[in-house]
């Protein structure tokens, strides 16, 4: 694979991170690799379908038609119908909005929380580091799905409570990663120079350390999206996530599992959607690691 040139030229400021590249170069780099290109395609397709999904839908995803229940895929119903006669194809299209909502909210919440806790703990050290990391260890000591189930059980079953539960369980790995990166960066010469110039701890963390930790955090967030999708699907499958009649993919599998022997399409197409999106985010994360992580580039 052709390496992405991340070395700054002589006209760039010395403080500019080496990993900082234009969005256009980043996209071109990802498109050169078929696997990362697939991940980028899945993300773009998910966004497009979330926007224009209602225009592509052939039926109302909520209207029941018991006379056409469990109809096999046909020209009228591309992916067949479920046990209530609802068009599965249309429900999958509307379900992309739910999946994108989950991904977006979790990313916006988890990224800043994990990055802040990790960088503060790693830079300040001492008692602050001990307290923050012990809290992180408590969250890490439980499997994420089990902890999510506990939070949803306490908050009550709903889509947004499921998003809150997933967010509360997804930040600790980000915090651990940011702390490890910060422990490396805080020993560098430019951080020492900033201290000698009288920069406050907040300014050093925000202006010098956070930008250097962003590549690893973005990569980890992208890789975590597959886990987020699977966790949301698992909560929906157990009836603790999105509630009927919302067309969430995990909930669609849960309601159709009783008919999967004779009506395979009821669970097959939502399962394929979950698989493709999860695989896409994993492959996109691998591509971003090659593009944004200087350590990966230096090993090649």
Q: What report would you give on this structure?
A:
The chain has eleven helices and no strands. It is an all-alpha fold. It has one domain: MetI-like (MetI-like fold), CATH 1.10.3720.10.
CATH H-level homologous superfamily name: MetI-like
**SSE sequence, one letter per element:** HHHHHHHHHHH
Q: What oligomeric state do the depicted chains represent?
A: single chain
CATH class: Mainly Alpha
Major sheet attributes: none
What is the CATH T-level topology?
MetI-like fold
Strand proportion, as a percent range, falls in: under 5%
The span between the termini is 10 Å
Question: What count of domains describes the coordinates?
Answer: 1
Percentage of residues in helical conformation: over 70%
Strand segment count: 0
Overall pLDDT level: 84
Structural Rg: 22 Å
Assign the structural class, choosing from mainly alpha, mainly beta, alpha/beta, alpha+beta, or little secondary structure: mainly alpha
Number of helices: 11
Would you identify the regions where 5 or more consecutive residues have pLDDT less than 50?
Answer: 1-21, 296-300
Question: Any key phrases for this structure?
Answer:
transmembrane helix, MetI-like fold, elongated, disordered N terminus, 11 helices, peptide transport, 70% helix, protein transport, transmembrane, OppC_N, 300 residues, disordered C terminus, mainly alpha
């Amino acid at each position: 694979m052709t390496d992405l040139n991340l070395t700054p030229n002589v006209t760039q400021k010395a403080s500019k991170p080496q990993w900082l590249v234009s969005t256009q170069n980043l996209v071109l780099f990802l498109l050169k690799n078929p696997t990362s290109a697939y991940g980028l395609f899945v993300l773009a397709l998910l966004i497009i379908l979330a926007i224009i999904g209602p225009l592509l839908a052939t039926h109302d995803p909520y209207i029941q038609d018991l006379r056409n229940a469990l109809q096999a895929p046909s020209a009228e119903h591309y992916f067949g119908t479920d046990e209530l006669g609802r068009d599965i194809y249309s429900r999958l299209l509307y379900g992309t909005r739910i999946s994108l909502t989950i991904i977006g909210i979790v990313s916006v919440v988890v990224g800043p929380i994990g990055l802040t806790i990790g960088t503060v703990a790693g830079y300040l050290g001492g008692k602050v580091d001990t307290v923050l990391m012990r809290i992180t260890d408590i969250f890490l000591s439980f499997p994420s799905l089990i902890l999510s189930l506990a939070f949803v059980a306490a908050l009550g079953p709903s889509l947004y409570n499921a998003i809150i539960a997933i967010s509360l369980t997804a930040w600790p790995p980000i915090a651990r990663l940011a702390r490890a990166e910060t422990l490396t960066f805080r020993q560098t010469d430019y951080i020492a120079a900033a201290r000698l110039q009288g920069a406050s701890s907040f300014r050093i963390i925000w202006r010098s350390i956070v930008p250097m930790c962003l590549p690893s955090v973005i990569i980890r967030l992208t890789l975590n999206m597959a886990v987020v999708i699977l966790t949301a699907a698992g909560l929906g499958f157990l009836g603790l996530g999105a509630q009927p009649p919302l067309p969430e993919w995990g909930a669609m599998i849960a309601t159709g599992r009783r008919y999967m022997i004779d009506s395979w399409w009821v669970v097959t197409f939502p399962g394929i959607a979950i698989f493709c999106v999860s695989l896409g985010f994993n492959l996109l994360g691998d591509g971003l690691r090659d593009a944004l992580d200087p350590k990966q580039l230096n090993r090649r």
